[in-house]
Design brief:
With 265 residues, the chain is an alpha+beta fold. The protein has helices at 3-16, 59-76, 93-99, 115-119, 137-151, 156-168, 215-229, 244-249, and strands spanning 30-34, 37-41, 47-50, 80-85, 103-104, 108-114, 129-134, 173-180, 183-192, 198-206, 234-239, 253-263.
């Protein structure tokens, strides 16, 4: 693809996906607004700040906006994630967030591309591994347990968030597990962005002993076929350095980066 194609894909990402808001909004979740920012509350752990652009805010006005978010979540006694993309303006936004007490986490690459390229892939699963769509709470608990083994951190918030999404609209998300001998070895989910041509892929964590066997690729292809069946034409992923080469070989294009900046009172 050419640089122009990448720019067009980024523009589609900006106009169709951002701001990243749950739709429909699950019960108990609150979305409020402060200028160009949307604050998503009560979805899983802490809060989430999203926006399309900052409407040209800079300098003291931008610092005041950031300070209001710090004060808001300090008063709630909870952490908040500000999702910063690599092409956000002003260019010193990350520096201003750090100065206000936000801490950057691992950078990921945003890749976008045609659903058809992914859906047409024909990966071969290892013997004894099968893919299965799940909705039951016990399966969500098993996904969280797998992720906790991978990341060595509490992932119980996943269960809460995914269960709320399923309850709000089971047609807006599909969760898929890869199982071997009754054990969840990998899992991922696809969200069908309402009113857009996009599907977005999430998850993909895989137990160490099951990596490099084609399972992640199979999960990607399976979810892409689900998106294609629903008329989606583009897919977007926030990907790690490990998964980026796989997705690029399947036809996705890097359009920007994303870094979670987290403030914890």
């Amino acid at each position: 693809m050419t640089d122009l194609d990448a720019r067009r894909l980024r523009d589609a990402y900006d106009t169709q996906i951002r701001p990243e808001l749950p739709d429909p909004v699950p019960a108990g979740v609150i979305i409020d607004r402060d200028g160009p920012l949307f604050r998503v509350l009560n979805l899983d752990r802490g809060g989430f700040i999203t926006y399309r652009t900052l409407d040209g805010l800079a300098g003291a006005e931008l610092d005041a906006l950031i300070a209001r978010q710090v004060e808001f979540f300090r008063a709630r006694g909870e952490s908040v994630e500000w999702k910063l993309t690599g092409h956000d303006e002003p260019a010193d936004l990350g520096d201003r967030l750090r100065a206000a007490g936000f801490v950057p986490e691992d950078l990921e690459t945003v890749v976008v591309g045609p659903v058809a390229a992914l859906a047409g892939a024909v990966p071969v699963l290892p013997e004894g591994v099968r893919l299965r769509e799940v909705t039951a709470r016990e399966d969500l608990d098993r996904i969280a347990a797998m992720e906790e083994e991978v990341w060595q951190a509490d992932r119980s918030h996943l269960v809460t968030g995914l269960a709320r999404e399923i309850e709000a609209d089971p047609q807006s998300i599909t969760i898929v597990v890869a199982e071997a001998d009754g054990t969840v070895v990998s899992a991922g989910w696809v969200r069908y962005q309402r009113g857009t041509g996009f599907a977005t892929l999430w998850g993909g964590s895989t137990l160490p002993q099951w990596r490099k066997k084609g399972i992640y690729r199979a999960l990607v292809a399976y979810r892409a076929r689900l998106a294609e069946q629903r008329g989606k034409t583009l897919v977007q992923v926030d990907c790690s350095p490990e998964s980026r080469p796989i997705l690029e070989r399947l036809g996705l294009v890097a359009v920007t980066t994303t870094t979670p900046y987290v403030y914890t009172p």
